[in-house]
Amino acid sequence: MAQCEKRCAEGTIGHSHCEITTWNFRLSETPSVLEELDGWIRRRLRCFLLKQWKPGRGRRRALQRLGVLDPHSGSRKGPWRLSKTQAVHAGLDKTWFDTLGLFNLTAQWRLRSQAV
């Protein structure tokens, strides 16, 4: 991933980190709700990155830089639809977001529920 793209992703994740940390964990009694919300947040961030990359060849090149060698990764489908494909998940997986410091609601809920 190019340095500029990485900085932009880190900035977006940093901004979302500030918004997410204000979440009131007492509103949710089950982790399944938080797991769904975590998944939706990651999908939305994937969509954001896909919108930044040019359709077709640009997306294919960006995903190849992330190690995805799928010939169909350069599809001209919309970013929301592509954000759920296997190729995008392979390049922008959960561990990739963890390395950038994305706040994990489920992990925080488990930490807080064990502390009580």
Compose a concise summary of this entry.
The protein has 116 residues and is mainly α. It is 66% helix and 0% strand. The protein has one domain (3-115).
Q: Major sheet, described briefly?
A: none
Shape: elongated
* Count of DSSP-assigned helices: 7
SSE class: mainly alpha
The oligomeric state is single chain
Task: Report the radius of gyration as a whole number of Å.
Answer: 15 Å
Low-confidence stretches at least 5 residues in length (pLDDT < 50)? none
The helicity comes to 55-70%
Order of helices and strands: HHHHHHH
Total DSSP E strands: 0
Query: Approximately how much beta-strand content do the residues carry?
Result: under 5%
**What is the terminal-to-terminal distance?**
41 Å
Number of structural domains: 1
Average pLDDT rating: 78
Q: Can you describe this structure?
A:
This protein is mainly α. It has one domain (3-115). It is built from seven helices and no strands. Helix 2 (31-52) runs antiparallel to helix 7 (105-115). The radius of gyration is 15 Å and the shape is elongated. The mean pLDDT is 78.
